[in-house]
Amino acid sequence: MYILLAAIMPFIAAAQQRQQYVAVKNGQFVVNNKPWYFIGTNYWYGGLLAQGKDAEKGKARLRKELDFLKAQGVTNLRVLAGSEGHGLVNGVERVKPVLQPEHGVYNKEWMEGLDYLLYEMGKRQMYAVLFLSNNWEWSGGFLQYLNWNGQLTDSAMKSKMNWGDLRDNTSRFYHCTPCQEDYRKQVEYIITHVNRYTKRSYRNEPAIMAWELANEPRPMRPAAVDAYKQWTAATAAYIKTLDGNHLITLGTEGIMGTEESADLFREVHTPAQVDYLTLHIWPKNWSWFKDTAIAASLPVVKEKAVSYIQTHAAIAQQLKKPLVVEEFGLPRNGHAFEPSAAVTLRNELFASIFGVWKQSRTQGGPVAGCNFWAFGGTARPIEGQTFWKEGNDFMGDPPQEEQGLNTVFDSDVSTWKLIRSFIHSK
User: Fold this and answer.
1) Smallest Cα–Cα separation from 82: which of 158, 181, 185?
2) Are the C-beta atoms of 140 and 97 separated by less than 8 Å?
3) In this structure, is the dihedral angle defined by the CA atoms of residues 250, 351, 76 and 329, taken in order, positive or negative?
4) What pLDDT is stored for residue 16 in this prediction?
5) Cα four-point dihedral sign 157, 163, 169, 173
6) pLDDT at res. 249
7) Model confidence over 358-369: pLDDT tens digits?
8) Can you give the pLDDT at residue 18?
9) Please, which pLDDT band fits residue 288 given cuts at 50, 70 and 90?
10) 391-420: per-residue pLDDT in tens?
C-alpha cells in the first residue's frame, strides 16, 4: 500500500497544480473557487512570434517576454486569434501573416504559432483572452468578410475611407448573412483546433480564459443597432455550443462603442451566454486632449477615465457580472515615440485606473481586471521609420499606428514598478 501511494504521489501533486479554468461566480471571476482579480496587458501579436523563417528566434523572444511578464505579476494576456485577407485595407498595411489569407483557406502555420504561445503560457499558469476577428481594418476583420462576399469592391477595400464611409461599410456586416457564416466557420476552425504541443483542442485548453467575439465590435450606425444586438447574442450562444469550458465576452469599448447608449451596452451584455463586460479608454482618439497637450489636459483625462469606469461598473453590478478595463493607453510625454522619452503622464493615468481596480478588489466589486495597451517587450521602433513594415519586429502598436505610440516596453522601469506596486498591494 505504501509503495503504491509513493508511486502515485507525483501524479497527485501534478493534478493539484494543474491549471484551472477561469469561471464566474457571484459576479466575480474565480479560479479554483477563489476570487480572482488581475492586472494584465494586451499582447495581440503573441501568436505571431513563433512563425515564419525566424520561428526559433521568435520562440526565444516569446519565452523571454513571458518570463518577464510573469515576474512582474502579469498573468492575463489579450491576444489576436483571428485575422483575414491580404494586401492593403482602408489604405494601410494589415498584420502579416494572417490566419485566413484567402477565402476559406486557413494557414496551419499561423495556428501553430498560437499553439506555442498557449503552451508556454500554460507552463507559467497564465491566461489568454482570444479575440476572434476585428471591427477594424488592421487585421482584415469585418471589411474582409464583406469584400469576400461581394459587398465591398476591391478598390473600395484598398482605398482610404473617411470616417463616414468606414462606418457605412463596416455596419453592413451585421446585415450580411454569408459574411456571418464565414465568420462562424473561422470561429469553429479555431475552437476545434488541436494544439500541436499540448495535444488538446482549444475548447479543452485551460490556458485560455475567454473567447471574445471581436476586437471592438460596434454597430457603427444607428440603423445597424438591431442587427448588432441579434448578432452578438446569437454568436455568443453559438460559441457556447462549441465550447462549454471557457468564458465569452463581446470585446466592446463600452458606451463609446454602443452608439453612446448605456442602455444598448447593458442590453448586449445581458444574455446568459455573455459572461462578463469590457470597456476601453482612449483619451487621444476620443479627443480628451488636443494635439500634444497631454500634460495640460491630464487632470480632465484622469477624471473622465475614472468616471467612465464607474458608470460601467454600476451596470456590471446590476447584471451581476465582472467588468474588465481591457484596453487603455496614452502616448509618452510630449507625444514622443522613442523609448527614451518620459512616461510620467502615462503612469499617472495608469495609477488612476489601477486605483479603481484596487478599490474594487478590496471590496469584492465588479471591476475585476485591467489590461493596459500594450506590451512591446524587447522590440524597439526603427529610427527614421514611423509605421510598421513587413519583417519588422512586432510591438504594441498595430500597423496603422505610429510604432511606439502607446507601447509599454520592457525598459519602462517606472511603469513596471507602478504595476508591481498595485499587484502586490494589500
Assistant:
1) 185
2) no
3) positive
4) 39
5) positive
6) 98
7) 999 999 999 999
8) 83
9) very high
10) 899 999 999 999 999 999 999 999 999 999
> What are the beta bridge partners of residue 18?
none
Residue 211's identity, in one-letter code, is W
| Residues 302-308, mean pLDDT to the nearest whole number | 98
Show the 3-state SS of the chain.
CHHHHHHHHHHHHHHHHCCCCEEEECCEEEECCEECCEEEEECCCHHHCCCCCCHHHHHHHHHHHHHHHHHHCCCEEEEECCCECCCCECCECCCCCCCECECCECCHHHHHHHHHHHHHHHHCCCEEEEECCECCHHHCHHHHHHHHCCCCCHHHHHCCCCHHHHHHHHHHHHHCHHHHHHHHHHHHHHHHCECCCCCCEHHHCCCEEEEECCECCCCCCHHHHHHHHHHHHHHHHHHHHHCCCCEEECCCCCHHHCCCCHHHHHHHCCCCCCCCEEEEECCCCCCCCCCCCHHHHHHHHHHHHHHHHHHHHHHHHHHCCCEEEEEECCCCHHHCCCCCCCCHHHHHHHHHHHHHHHHHHHHCCCEEEEEECCEEECCCCCCCCCCCCCCCCCCCCCCCCCCCCCCEECCCHHHHHHHHHHHCCC
| Residue in the structure block whose three cell numbers are 525598459 | 411
Lookup: cell for 265: 451596452
Q: Is the pLDDT of residue 92 over 90?
A: no
Distances 350 to 66, 277, 325, 345 between C-alpha atoms, Å: 21, 20, 11, 9
When pLDDT is cut at 50, 70 and 90, the band that residue 293 belongs to is confident
CA nearest neighbour of 178 among 154, 150, 218, 156: 150
The whole-number pLDDT of residue 426 equals: 74
Within 10 A of 386 (CB to CB), how many other CB atoms are there? 12
Burial of 359 by CB count in 10 Å (0-12 exposed, 13-18 middle, 19+ buried)? exposed
More confident residue, 41 or 425: 41
**11, 14, 16, 22 alpha-carbon torsion, rounded to 10°:** -140
The cell for 253 is 469599448
Cα dist from 278 to 71, 244, 368, whole Å: 26, 20, 10
d(CA 113, CA 59) in angstroms, rounded, equals 9
Q: What mean pLDDT is predicted for residues 93-99?
A: 92
What is the separation, in whole angstroms, between the first and last Cα of the chain?
45
Determine the pLDDT at residue 171.
98
Please name the residues in contact with 383: beta carbons below 8 A apart, sequence gap of 6 or more: none
Under 8 Å between Cβ of 82 and 133: yes
pLDDT for position 291: 82
